[in-house]
Amino acid sequence: MSRNADDLVRFIRDRAGEEPVRFGLILGSGLGHLADAVDGVAIDYAQLTGFPHAGVSGHNPKLVIGELEGVRVAVFGGRAHYYESGRGDAMRLPLEVLKGLGAEALIATNAAGSLREDMPTGSLMMLDDHINFSGLNPLIGEQSDARFVPMVDAYDPDIRRALREAALAEDVDMDHGVYAWYSGPSFETPAEIRAIAILGADAVGMSTVPEVILARFLGMKAAAISTVTNMAAGLSDESISHEHTKAMAPIGAAKLDRVLRRFLRDQA
């Protein structure tokens, strides 16, 4: 862990207490309200030197530490994307801090486009695996041999099983599949969508993959769930835009809220 991460961990513990967190949650579009449900302390990213500015509308740049459904969590209300800075490791410091706070696992959420007709807008998809279609990697430049991170079961089987059980208990339909990371910020072309469909992708988005790679590098387990906010380019008559994403995100987010809360209750 870097010196800056050590300093931030001490800063956060001074305000939120010494008790270790168990899970870190990165909230995608439409899920910001979940941070407000945490019984704890909210710290603006601006107070955390080196944290991202989370300059994407629809994100709330605060770190919230406290209890949610009886479990100690650290909730990131915003994330940095590669397309904001050209840095694949933009979330490295926040995740180093998460590890320093004691987290055993990261659960990331995101908004995604669906490549499957049977997974329309408003659906949830748990990630079984990913395709790094961007070709970028947050560990480029890392000097230690730890950079050679194995990515078999990058999405932890036990956590995925528990999330599936939570969805069943809440009577929420949750698909599963492969997520392709596209760098953004422009959306994909229809030809690119056809290409990643051939490669085996079920959904596409502009985040999460670097965070999962970093989590595994840092020794944390990882899981992720997408809320489908649109059909991918060329698959429907929807007008794809960031405004459309923000408008559609709450449809899936309401279901995802129930799944995550039930998952945490089951872990308590």
Give a topology summary.
Elements: H1 3-16, E1 23-26, H2 33-36, E2 39-44, E3 62-68, E4 71-76, H3 82-85, H4 92-100, E5 105-114, E6 124-131, H5 157-169, E7 175-181, H6 190-199, E8 203-205, H7 209-217, E9 221-231, H8 242-267
Parallel strand pairs: 1-4, 1-5, 5-9, 6-7, 7-8
Antiparallel strand pairs: 2-3, 3-4, 5-8, 6-9
Walkthrough of the structure:
The relative contact order is 0.21. It is globular, with a radius of gyration of 17 Å. Helix content is 33%, strand content 23%. It contains eight helices and nine strands. The two termini are 28 Å apart. A five-stranded mixed barrel has the order 5-8-7-6-9, surrounded by four helices. It is an alpha/beta fold and 268 residues long.
Properties at a glance:
single chain, Rossmann fold, 5-stranded mixed barrel
